[in-house]
Write a structure and sequence with these properties.
alpha/beta; 14 helices
Length: 289
């Protein structure tokens, strides 16, 4: 179960982040590094829409503080070693990179080594307005994924497994984009499919038990391996959404909210199949098939 949320007056956050610029007018408290107000406003505005959308579906609205940081400020406000990886400092403070970075770009494959059609699709999807090939369009959408964590943290859902935490937030991301901003689907889907299509031979950890037992190690020491897991989860989330549209995310929320006792793997898979959708249970049942 998520930790109980302690209410902290906004003024304390204003003092804590006084070296950053404050951005008013959003559902969340937003602070950003100098020079990235436009980006901060875009991220915060999309988070406003996501929170409103899911509040309408599941009647819950988390309280989130968003920090959009350049590399210098990243080192001041978080100990997470990988610049560019969206994450939480606690159960309500979301850290986001303000600019393109090596972590994002390390996922770009050599296009001349790919099939021509795939290379063309990647180039068309991820080349920005300055003509630079960057994965920023995909990683910006991961802010919605991270926002999903705040929902279950703060509502007190019993998530059962680490992999379910990540699958659930990917389902939230997929559902929101498909239902509200379908023009962003290429940016969301091409990258995960590309990574999954590359296979798993180059990664140290690939099983769900590895993910469960070595979560912190993989996230901090093997970020590309962690990214591979997330891409697997997202391709599953796409399939789950395609089979059930908005129903799986609502049913999964209600099931995890009501099931307080931790279940063994067999019982958890049976619960997911019975209460949510067989495609959700199959993420566990067919992971290595």
């Amino acid at each position: 179960m998520a930790n109980k949320i302690t209410e902290v007056p906004d003024e304390l956050y204003y003092q804590k982040y006084k070296e950053l610029l404050r951005l008013d007018g959003h559902k969340s408290l937003v602070f950003h590094s100098i020079g990235c107000e436009e980006r901060a406003n875009a991220i915060a505005a999309q988070c406003d829409k996501v929170i409103a959308y899911y509040n309408n579906l599941i009647e819950f609205e988390p309280k989130v503080i968003i920090l959009i940081l350049n590399p210098e400020d990243w080192n001041k406000y978080t100990e997470f070693p990988v610049y560019g990886m969206p994450h939480y400092n606690d159960n309500k403070t979301l850290i986001v990179a303000s600019e393109n970075n090596d972590f994002w770009n390390n996922f770009i494959p050599p296009l001349d080594m790919l099939p021509v059609e795939l290379a063309k699709l990647i180039s068309e999807t991820y080349t920005n307005s300055n003509g630079v090939l960057t994965m920023q369009a995909f990683f910006d959408l991961l802010v919605i994924h991270e926002l999903g964590h705040a929902f279950y943290f703060q509502a007190g859902l019993t998530m059962q497994r680490r992999w379910m935490e990540e699958l659930f937030t990917n389902i939230m991301l997929q559902t929101y984009i498909a239902e509200n901003e379908p023009n962003l689907l290429p940016a969301l889907l091409v990258f995960p499919k590309m990574v999954v299509a590359g296979g798993k031979l180059n990664f140290k950890y690939t099983s769900l038990s590895d993910f469960e037992n070595r979560y912190e190690e993989i996230g901090k020491q093997y970020p590309q391996n962690y990214g591979w897991y997330q891409c697997r989860f997202h391709t599953s989330a796409e399939e789950i959404y395609n089979k059930g549209k908005i129903e799986p995310v609502i049913k999964l929320w209600n099931t995890l909210l009501s099931q307080k006792d931790t279940l063994n793997d067999t019982d958890f898979a049976s619960l997911l199949a019975a209460k949510v959708n067989q495609s959700v249970a199959d993420v566990y049942l067919k992971w290595d098939s």
